[in-house]
Design goal:
mainly alpha, 10 helices, 4% strand, three-stranded antiparallel sheet, 196 residues
């Protein structure tokens, strides 16, 4: 989790650590603070060592907190991608996008439908505003299969429908109209409605 830099507030929430603990870790050079950017960084070798020493259950809990935090951050920032704060919000997401991408992958791996739902619109808006259609298509292409169940709940159907619609949208932007149409039709069929 600590591969990427984090702001103090983010680090405190994900690690469940207070200022005193972070200061102590920094004092022993285990955690470097970039004061110019108000971010923290853990050297990759130390991160790997910590991952080896931490139990799988504890690592999973930390990864889930990381995923939830950054997916919720995408959710909080999504409305700002459609108003006068768009440029500042795009820069803010740029800084944390590696964390957000990892958080998204974790949510997909775990089938965390609620977390995925929280991040989906923000992820879609960010990638399309940045013109990163191919990356968006890659991020979205395996999602429906990894979330699919024999009997998905109503919420899971709604989330899958949104993801298919987002994927169709980015494929249309890259000129893959036939595939985009198929995905949009699947989306509509999934929710049993002629319109989203």
């Amino acid at each position: 989790v600590w591969l990427y830099c984090k702001r103090l507030r983010q680090l405190q929430e994900v690690a469940e650590a207070d200022n005193r603990t972070l200061a102590r870790i920094s004092r022993y050079s285990l955690l470097q603070q970039d004061t110019d950017r108000c971010r923290y960084h853990l050297h990759e070798l130390l991160r790997q060592f910590a991952a080896e020493r931490t139990g799988a259950e504890e690592t999973g809990v930390t990864l889930d907190r990381h995923s939830d935090y950054f997916c919720r951050q995408l959710q909080r920032l999504a409305p700002d991608l459609s108003d006068k704060r768009e440029e500042a919000t795009l820069r803010q997401i740029d800084e944390d996008f590696d964390n957000m991408r990892r958080a998204w992958r974790r949510a997909i791996e775990c089938g965390a439908t609620e977390t995925i739902d929280a991040a989906a619109a923000g992820l879609h808006r960010y990638l399309t505003r940045r013109g990163r259609y191919n990356e968006a298509a890659t991020i979205l292409e395996g999602v429906p299969g990894s979330l699919g169940k024999k009997r998905p709940s109503r919420q899971e159907k709604r989330v899958l429908a949104r993801l298919l619609a987002f994927h169709g949208d980015v494929l249309a932007e890259t000129g893959q109209n036939e595939e985009a149409t198929k995905l949009l039709q699947k989306s509509l069929l999934l929710i049993g409605s002629p319109v989203l």
